[in-house]
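Changelog note: in this version the structure field was regenerated for every chain. One regenerated record is shown below for reference.
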Amino acid sequence: MRQAVTKEFIGMTVEQAVEELVKRGYTRDEAIRIIKEQYELETSFGFKEILIHLMSTLVLISLLYPSEFSLIRIVIGFPYITFLPGYAFILAFYKEDIREVNNLSKFGLSLGISFATLALIGLFLNFTIGLDQFTIILSGVLVTEIFTILSTVLKVRR
């Protein structure tokens, strides 16, 4: 409903759009929040998602050429595997709710979800194709990319 409301205000200033929403029965705070959310939705370029895709590419390149990129694997791979699966999960499923949480809590949630995800991946890999460095990193990248793509798809639908 909010998107339908705010699409009518294209070409208006923010003050005019807020005043129009106030005339329609919204409080001033609600009207400002509606306009702000619409603006954030329309102007977000997905920088976080692009950064995650870039880091995924670097981690995969480090897997293809292990001897030349061992430093990249350590510097980017460890934070990637321990942080980004959880962060991508939060981006995908809790985008609206997580705005009110501070950055330290987001970091802790991301670490916890990442470790839980890695544990489930390890359990699954142990009973299927086996555990080694290649399968763990590849499956971690795959899960992170799935969550990131899901985040992008859900952001477009909201």
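Spot check on this record: The radius of gyration is 20 Å. The first helix runs from residue 2 to 7.
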